[in-house]
Write a structure and sequence with these properties.
This protein has 211 residues and is mostly helical. The chain has one domain (5-210). It has six helices and two strands; from the N terminus they run αββααααα. It has helices at 5-29, 49-62, 64-88, 105-132, 140-162, 168-210, and strands at 33-36, 39-42. Strands 1-2 form a two-stranded antiparallel sheet. Helix 1 packs parallel to helix 3 (64-88) and helix 2 packs parallel to helix 4. Involved in the import of queuosine (Q) precursors, required for Q precursor salvage. Its main location: membrane.
């Protein structure tokens, strides 16, 4: 699918903004525990799969290099903005602007973990998707890249953010939370986002053909 340079620039700008928005939301939501059928997880499990959906569509429509450009341009702004936002709204409560005057090592660790996990997970997702995207079955590439990308992203994030954390609950339960978080992400991605990926791909391709 060929895009004009203007359409490509607009699409990349929109994707960069979307990635930053989801990272900020997920870094905030991961601080809010959730009990799901008796298992510990966080609300962040429901927001982060959107990034993999956006990345897979990028690779499918524009190729591997544009997807990597999105990651490169997202990393630093997302790290800074997610730290600021998470400090202001730590554990779901507004702390006031004065909270920014002190270095919050707990939130900084979460932001840094998110930074590393995002880069690793997205690079794996792009690599796997690019290798499989020529297959006749359109669903194989997004399914395989989602399984592997989310696995690396989830366990990298929780191990870096919460292993021996200052938060006793997260330090004790991070393995359980990461496992349930991954299962939730996988269920949402394969049952909801995979069909959504197919529908969006069809809509975008028809829109591009009209343009």
């Amino acid at each position: 699918m060929q895009m004009t340079s203007n359409v490509r620039r607009s699409a990349l700008a929109g994707l960069i903004g979307f990635h930053i928005l989801i990272i900020i939301a997920s870094n905030y939501l991961v601080q809010l525990p959730l009990s799901l059928f008796g298992w510990h997880t966080t609300w962040g499990a429901f927001s982060f799969p959107f990034i993999f959906l956006a990345t897979d569509l990028t690779v499918r429509l524009m190729g591997k290099q544009p997807a990597r450009q999105v990651i490169a341009r997202v990393m630093i702004p997302a790290l800074v903005v997610s730290y600021v936002f998470s400090v202001l709204f730590q554990e779901g409560a507004f702390r006031g602007i004065a909270a920014l005057a002190e270095l919050n090592t707990f939130v900084l660790r979460i932001s840094f973990a998110s930074f590393l996990a995002y880069v690793l997970g997205q690079l794996v997702d792009i690599h796997v998707f690019d290798r499989l995207r020529q297959m006749r079955q359109w669903w194989v590439a997004p399914a395989a890249s989602t399984v592997l990308g989310n696995l690396l992203d989830t366990f990298a994030f929780f191990s870096i953010a919460f292993w021996h954390s200052d938060n006793p609950f997260m330090a004790e339960h991070w393995v359980e939370i990461a496992s349930v978080d991954y299962a939730v992400k996988l269920g949402i991605s394969l049952l909801l986002f995979l069909p959504l990926y197919g529908a969006l791909l069809s809509l975008i391709e028809r829109a591009l053909l009209r343009r």
